[in-house]
Design a protein that fits this description.
Layout (H helix, E strand, L loop, with lengths): L1 H26 L3 H13 L2 E4 L4 E4 L4 E3 L3 H5 L4 H7 L13 H16 L3 H13 L2 E4 L4 E4 L4 E3 L10 H16 L3 H13 L2 E4 L4 E4 L2
Antiparallel strand pairs: 1-2, 2-3, 4-5, 5-6, 7-8
Helix pairs in contact: 1-2, 1-4, 5-6, 7-8
Length: 207
């Protein structure tokens, strides 16, 4: 539908507006504002990859972070939004991550039911797919570079223990400037109804 497409384009423009503001702040060495804008974008489900000058949203849309020359040329968010990766509709989650997430969840449910034979079989299945599980850290990593959280022990939603472990892992990632990991954890928790408030150093479940 046309309205849906308009809303999609409008959101891309809003993302570009915030990215441009952040780039201007970075070039002006106003790192506090740049960090606030990064947080604002993260809250919208947008992950920034400064090394590759790209961004990716939780709904699958992605694009380029504008170069300084483009900013100096006075390009508007509307013009830059048009240049972003084409696609009429959000592409959804990373397709490669979906089967992994499903198996990780199934394994957690098998562990909760104390069905260790099933849990071990799924671990082996994931291993054959090149996926390594880190139960203590509540994280998984694929050979392709994909990463995700281990959540799903309880069908009622994330356990406090899962959340506190992941919040601690995210803090660790932020301290070592691994922003991709920090954003991934924040986004996965958000998808499970958990909001992190960095300023207050608290998390709240909306479930």
């Amino acid at each position: 539908p046309d309205g849906k497409k308009k809303a999609y384009v409008h959101l891309t423009q809003e993302i570009m507006r915030l990215i441009i503001e952040r780039e201007n702040a970075r070039f002006g060495k106003d790192f506090q504002t740049a960090d606030q804008l990064r947080t604002q974008l993260t809250d919208m489900g947008v992950t920034l990859h400064d090394k590759t000058n790209t961004w990716k949203a939780a709904d699958g849309r992605s694009g380029q972070i504008p170069k300084w020359a483009e900013l100096q040329a006075g390009q508007t968010p509307e013009e830059l939004a048009v240049k972003q990766e084409p696609g009429d509709e959000p592409a959804g989650d990373d397709p490669d991550a979906l089967p992994i997430r499903q198996l990780v969840k199934e394994r957690e449910q098998a562990r909760a039911a104390k069905d260790f034979a099933r849990s071990d079989a799924i671990r082996e299945e994931l291993k054959a797919m090149g996926v390594e599980l880190f139960d203590k850290e509540k994280l998984w990593r694929a050979a392709s570079g994909l990463r995700g959280c281990i959540i799903g022990y309880s069908s009622a939603g994330p356990l406090d223990m899962e959340i506190t472990t992941l919040v601690a892992q995210r803090e660790k990632a932020r301290q070592s400037s691994d922003w991709d990991m920090a954003d991934m954890i924040r986004n996965e928790l958000k998808n499970h109804g958990v909001q992190i408030y960095d300023k207050d150093k608290v998390w709240r479940s909306t479930e």
